[in-house]
Design a protein that fits this description.
- By secondary structure, this protein is of the alpha/beta class.
- The chain folds into 2 domains: 207 residues, 3-Layer(aba) Sandwich (Rossmann fold), CATH 3.40.50; 180 residues, 3-Layer(aba) Sandwich (Rossmann fold), CATH 3.40.50.
- Helices cover 43% and strands 17% of the residues.
- The strands form 2 sheets. An 8-stranded mixed sheet has the order 3-4-2-1-5-6-7-8, with helices on both faces.
- The termini are close together.
- The relative contact order is 0.12.
- The mean pLDDT is 93.
Length: 405
């Protein structure tokens, strides 16, 4: 099977950010399929025009379109449109049996649908976030005309798809609410890299020797985006509450510099916790995350208190499970249900940092409970979120769409 795979924000393990597309694509290659990845080169380094590399057998086609979290709304829209225009022609030039387009942004459906029509093959669309439901809910998309246009684009993406992959049960529900047939939507959540994050093969001591300021106390780690929807400044308030009640806990944030990063830093400065029990560092490549999570006593996944965020399928949650690190989240939904069901972590209140600090402190002080939670996390990753198993599910969806056995 020949797959044209479109993902504007494709990453390799040497890059920071999610690597779902890389991991899925390389497993498709290992199963004997040909994969052409259409993506953007986001660094503003003066490159012009398409260039190609090969990554673990994946043929990657890069189009230079600078992008960062520091961009404003109009700059981001411009980047989405520029990539969509270039990606459509490139994807249409490649022989394929199926086109697989993964959001976000939702505009990825445009080059996907164009290439599928030109090559006379089906498109499978992957929903990573419910757009435009999410940006409308957080107030990022307020213009009624743009909202209407985004909703039309959403329906266009779904209606042009032979089947849809959703990253959580809630995302599937959102797709079905638009009128798309439920039987054509398959839930394949983000997955756990059991090999990279194997706690038996990972040593966190090197990390602690380099970040010596973190090795004096139990450690809570947040590694991921610091956007508006993440609300990571809440963690600074938890750190302040923890310090106020004399808990010996260190908090570390590893994340992209962007619009939210300065907000988090300012909150930590105002609360007098920055570089005391609250530390901030740049994001690191995926390969280094294994050591960080091994050194952590608890890993966090955070979002603002907004019910649509409960449908998320954040990489950090599944990486933490794979590393055998207990997980703490501050939202409800399917991940909270998993933690309650398995004991792999705890749920923190989204708007009460004092209570959140108390729960974290009690949880981390109970070494037996902490150890059991770590084992439960790894077991959950092995039994329900193995990357190999989920990649096989994706292969089946693509083969079915392409009409192949």
């Amino acid at each position: 099977m020949r797959v044209t795979y479109l993902h504007q924000y494709f990453n390799t393990p040497e890059m920071s950010g999610g690597t779902r597309s890389y991991e899925m694509a390389r497993r498709l290659v290992a199963k004997g399929h040909e994969v052409n990845m259409i993506t953007s080169w986001r660094e503003d380094g003066g490159r012009k025009g398409w260039f190609d590399t090969e990554e673990a057998g994946i043929k990657v086609h890069w189009l230079p379109v600078p992008y960062s979290n520091r961009m404003g709304f109009r700059e981001r829209i411009s980047a989405f449109v520029r990539f969509a225009l270039g990606a459509g022609n490139k994807a249409a030039s490649l022989t394929a049996d199926v086109v697989f387009a993964t959001s976000t942004p939702l505009t990825i459906a445009l080059p996907g649908a164009y290439a599928a029509k030109r090559r006379k093959v089906p498109m499978v669309f992957e929903v990573r976030d419910l757009w435009p439901e999410l940006p409308i809910a957080v107030g990022a998309l307020r213009n009624p005309v743009l909202q209407a246009a985004a909703k039309k684009l959403e329906k266009f993406a779904y209606n042009r798809s032979a089947s849809i992959v959703a990253l959580s049960p809630g995302m599937k529900d959102g797709v079905v609410r638009t009128g798309y047939p439920a039987e054509k939507v398959v839930v394949i959540p983000n997955s756990s890299d059991l090999e990279l994050f194997d706690p038996e093969k990972t040593d966190g001591n090197d990390f602690l020797s380099e970040y010596h300021e973190l090795n004096e106390a139990p450690l809570v780690v947040y590694a991921g985006a610091m956007g508006i929807i993440n609300g990571v400044e809440y963690l600074a308030h938890i750190a302040a509450a923890s310090r106020k009640c004399a808990q010996r806990i260190k908090f570390a944030v590893f994340g992209h510099k962007g619009q939210g990063e300065q907000k988090v830093r300012n909150a930590a400065l105002d609360l007098n916790v920055l570089n005391k029990n609250f530390h901030m560092y740049p994001s690191v490549p995926k390969k280094e995350m294994a050591q960080i999570l091994k050194a952590a006593d608890v890993a966090l996944s955070l979002f603002i208190d907004l019910k649509p965020m409960w449908n998320n399928s954040a990489n950090k949650f599944f990486d933490s499970l794979a590393s055998g690190t207990p997980v703490a989240i501050n939202y409800g939904g399917w991940q909270a249900d998993l933690l309650r069901e398995t004991g792999a972590g705890i749920i923190l209140p989204p708007n009460d940092p004092d209570e959140a600090a108390r729960r974290l402190g009690d949880f981390m002080a109970d070494k037996d409970r902490l150890q059991k939670a770590g084992k439960a996390a790894r077991k959950l990753a092995e039994e329900r979120f193995s990357r190999d198993d989920l990649a096989s599910q994706l292969e089946s969806v693509l083969l079915d769409a392409a009409g192949r056995p």
